[in-house]
Amino acid sequence: MIRIDSSGGRGPRLRGRVVGARVTLPAVTLPALCAAVALSLTAAACGGGGSSGVPDLRPTARAASAGVNGVNGATASPECASKVKTLSFYGVAQLSDVAKSAKAYMEKAHPGLTVQLNSTAGNYVQLVQQISADKAAGKQTDVAVAGFDLLPVFAKQLGAQELSPSLLRSTYDQRFLKLGQVDGKQIGIPDQVSMPVLAYNADVLAKAGVDPKTLATTDGVLAAAAKIKAADPSIQPIDLPTGQQFGQWYLSTLASSKGTLVQNANGTPNLNNPNVIAAAQFLAKVGSYGPQSDDPTQNGLLRFGIQKQTAMVGATIASIGAGIKYIQSQGAKGFKFGVMPFPTLPGGKQAPIAGGNALTVLATDKCQKEMATEMVVAMLSPDVVAASVEAVSYLPVDTAAATQLAGFYQQFPELVQFKDLGGSLVAAPAWPGARGGEVPQALTDQVIHVMKGTDPATAMRDAQATATQLTAS
């Protein structure tokens, strides 16, 4: 049995395209910010590393279709299509609307085929444990969704197969492929991709004389925080929620902006690097402005969007679309909303750590593998990618879907700036060892200590020691 800690985490969802089968998927409603953003965060849990949020693979915003034919999408050979009678898909939490769509397509395209959807696992860690147990019991898994940081487990312990990008539609955005690679091999095809962002109340910033453009760097953010505190002491200038392992997501993204990864190329931790310590020092200063929220949704976005207690808040791009819709729905009771990519360290550049998931093929039999690959291509169909982005504002992984989303981006111009950041994303750390899955939460714990007053260099030294111990086991 694979042992992975199940505390905290972040991950995303699935999608598809058309040929024959059409499945109506539930629309997203926004009665309150908590409900709206809980939808995106619990399903997307979007940080780099840490895979135990509650990603339920839902939803799409409207009816969408899955299919393969069109532009170079791989289909199984007639021989294999006639031979394979059962195909198994393993997801998490509730059944994915997209997986249902792909199931409908596959079963219509291949009469006699039954696609079994297994979505009882509550999070990505539980999913790995479930697949591991089923494998030991001789049960077959053909297709599975994997959090980016757990891809090495799928590759080295669960038998995930190498996939050729040539099997994908020509419209798939090749910039995202690197996020699904393990040791140079394409183990997963990135499906739902997120990045950290900084949202802000533009009305509060204006009152304090803060130009939002200055929020591009950590120095600018801290300068803005000082002005906000002076202008209105009743508002906490900044809140970077640490729950769902967002703490380590901020740390690694900040270090990455200066070209430093929290993990060395050989898999060992790199947490005592000066740039990592500089990132921790920024987080320490943020903590000095007041208590930082735990859960990004139930606390962070609630305090920011409904209670208006904070001026700036850390979030995932997956929550921004829902947040904008909610604030707009408040009319005069709302406020002018703004969002920026997460700040860089001074002199750095945008290189955010990606959050999200990838689709993997675990089938080893030639024909099962062909059919599993066809299902993966179906779930990455432009129409369903677009419908998913409309519901939960991930980065679109398909160029045809991005074109289809022109109206969506016109409606939400705040999101346009993120469309072209796919090429700047950096793969999430994938920690080795039987206990490597515990590292993201261990790093988040140290970030929390820093934000509560622990010396940043001391905390990173302790994080280095803990991560070394966990990855050596």
Automatic annotation (TrEMBL):
- Top-level taxon of the source organism: Bacteria
Could you tell me which InterPro entries the record lists for this protein? Bact_solute-bd_prot1, SBP
Protein's UniProt name: Extracellular solute-binding protein family 1
Taxonomic path: Bacteria, Bacillati, Actinomycetota, Actinomycetes, Frankiales
